[in-house]
Amino acid sequence: MKTITLLDGGLGQEIQKRAGQPAHPLWSAKVMMEQPEIVHSVHRDFIQAGARVITTNNYPLTPSRLQRDGQPEWLEPLHRQALSIARSAAAEQDGVQVAGCLPPLIGSYTTDQRSYDSIKQEYDQLVDLQVGEVDLFIAETLSSIREGVAAVRAAKASGKPILLSFSLSDEYPITLRSGELVSAALEAAEAEQPDGLLFNCSFPEAIAEGITFLNGKTHLPYGGYANAFSSVAPLKPGGTVDVLRPRTDLTPSKFAQQGKRWVAEGASIVGGCCEAGPGYIAQLRDTLQAEGYRLSGFQPVASAAKPLYKLTAQRETRRYEQPALGRSLLQVRSKFTIIVRTK
């Protein structure tokens, strides 16, 4: 029986929806400052829906975002609050792990153009704030390889497991939002050896493209967790989520069928992202259990000492269906050659 790690869903967006207040650039962290009970209730509902890993509510709480959208001195007390709430919720049920969030430092869906050293220093700070209260880290919604490498190295220094998750272009899911090829992201991951490689906060169809590419090409555990937005293009750094709209065609049942497809392509870590609330996770749980899968928290596996192959990329053209956009695109897609290493 295959074991699947079931993550939670779109924590921040669910918190914002329940708050009943105008969106703020600090999103769910602003709600936590005024209505912390909502954060606890959302964690609890995701756990009751079947999530075995919940993520801390610190996604907007980076030094860069607080400098722009809040107060720098909020960094430590709000991290303590987010960690305490997550730990309290996880303690209500056996077998639930808490993942510390290492988010994009400037904002979602945008590439951090700063130097590697600047990015790494900020991730080091976030790891230090969380390491004592989390079971693992998730570096999520990252748009570029440089951000991913910095986050993984910061987390690995803590000794805690680290899952690395990139956000894919919805229109061209062979690429990250930075424009870098997924093949290049995989090569970087193979070099850095996180405990898992994921794709998140993209259309489920885009996540499926990424996971299909990974199938058979890596020893790393892999998976994904999609959003249910109709588009993320309107959201810019410093903006608010009220400019985004949910898809009307993606029901919990259809979302779960996408998750089932990811698992069929070898994914062992799945969940939901923005607009995928507890109902989506409950449906995903039921669908996977009906297929005979066992659901659990995350357990690292021994990493391969060395990648078994090198990837070279060529390109082909194909038509990519985009139900969320009501169209299809004639798209360039990469074809990959596996060169087996002999020593």
Please provide a written account of the structure:
- With 343 residues, the chain is α/β, with parallel strands linked by helices.
- The chain has a single domain, classed as TIM Barrel.
- It is built from eleven helices and eleven strands.
- Strands 2-3-4-5-6-7-8-1-9 form a nine-stranded parallel β-sheet. Strands 10-11 form a two-stranded antiparallel sheet.
- The C terminus is likely disordered.
Concise synopsis of the structure shown:
With 343 residues, this protein is of the alpha/beta class. It is 37% helix and 20% strand.
Element layout with pairings:
Layout: E1 3-6, H1 11-19, H2 27-34, H3 36-48, E2 53-55, H4 63-69, H5 75-90, E3 97-102, H6 116-130, E4 136-142, H7 145-156, E5 162-166, H8 182-192, E6 196-200, H9 204-214, E7 222-226, H10 252-264, E8 269-272, H11 278-290, E9 294-296, E10 309-322, E11 327-340
Parallel strand pairs: 1-8, 1-9, 2-3, 3-4, 4-5, 5-6, 6-7, 7-8
Antiparallel strand pairs: 10-11
